[in-house]
Amino acid sequence: MKNFFIEGELIENMKNLYVLGKTFDVITLNNLLEHVIDPNNTIDLALKLLTNDGVLIIEVPNDFSNYQFFLKENKFINEEFWLAYPDHLTYFTKTSLNNLLSSKNMKEVFSLADFPIDIFLSNVQSNYILDKSKGNDAHKSRILVDNFLNSESIEKTINLYAAMSKIGLGRQIISFFKKNNNEIQLPKQ
Q1: What domain range includes position 32?
Q2: What is the mean pLDDT of the chain?
């Protein structure tokens, strides 16, 4: 496992891999872009390391979503709880992430959301923003529902989370991108 681990500063390591001529078929930026000073530069470096037929997978928190604004407008929340400065420097929705990658000649080929834990905020009995003591129970419910869905059908759960991503509902967005002129072969459903 040590052979696959590089310790150090991300951007410098990416630049060094590029100088060495390294390329990868799959690059995953998992909960990373919201933390870096320059997401544009990070994606540019990742694309330099991606093979022509490679897949770039990006997972980011789904912040400033329409559902979060709905919650605030209807007074289910009294603050923009998703603001996490200084940890989060940039915020994304599915649309803004797609716009950023589209500007780099990348095309979304598949997208998923994860469990929309924010739905608990529309009920005073489970609103973990207005009452922080409810957060642990909301998390436990999320795990129970996720486990139930997957036990029923992983394929149908994937389809559900793909549909949720299309409407921007989910705490996280996970999108798969390829260069605009390349198609990805998804598993048959």
Answers
A1: 2-179
A2: 92
Provide the pLDDT for residue 7: 87
DSSP assignment of 57-75 equals: EEEEEB-S-HHHHHHHHTT
Query: Does residue 116 belong to any structural domain of this protein?
Result: yes
pLDDT at 106 over 80: yes
Structure tokens given for 79:
């603050």
* pTM of the model as a whole: 0.89
Residue 82 scores a pLDDT above 90: yes
Percent of the chain with pLDDT over 90: 88
Structure tokens at 177: 């991108």
Residue 187 domain flag: no
pLDDT of residue 27 exceeding 60, the answer is yes
Residue type, 34: E
Residue 23 sits in a domain whose CATH number is 3.40.50.150
- How many domains does one find in the chain? 1
Residue 170 tokens read as 């989910």
- Domain-embedded: residue 185: no
Q: Is residue 188 part of a domain?
A: no
